[in-house]
Amino acid sequence: MQVLVVIVSATLTVFLIVSIIVLVKIIQVLNDIKRIIKKTEHIADQAEAVVNFFQNSAVPVAIVKLISNIIQSFKSKKSRK
C-alpha cells in the first residue's frame, strides 16, 4: 500500500514540475508574441505615414512635371524656328 502511495506522489510531483515548466515557457512565448505584435504595429504606422507623405507630395510634383514639360515643348518649338 505504501509503495502505491509513493509511486502516485512521485508521479504527481513530476507532473507538477513539468506543468510549471510548460506554463513558464507558454508565458515567455506569449510575451515574445506581444513584443512582435507591437513592433509590427509600429512598422505599419510608419508605412502609413510614408504613404500619406507621398500622397500629399504627389500632386505638387505632378504640377511641376507638367510645367516642366510645357516649358520644354516651347523651348523645342523655338529652337526649330
Concise overview:
By secondary structure, the protein is mainly α.
Describe the SSE topology.
Blueprint: H1 2-80
Number of domains: 1
Number of strand segments = 0
Radius of gyration: 35 Å
The helix-strand sequence is: H
Would you mind describing this structure in some detail?
The structure is a single chain. This protein has 81 residues and is an all-alpha fold. It has one domain (1-81). Helices cover 98% and strands 0% of the residues. It has 1 helix and no strands. It has one helix spanning 2-80. It is rod-shaped, with a radius of gyration of 35 Å.
Main features:
single chain, 81 residues, mainly alpha, 98% helix, rod-shaped
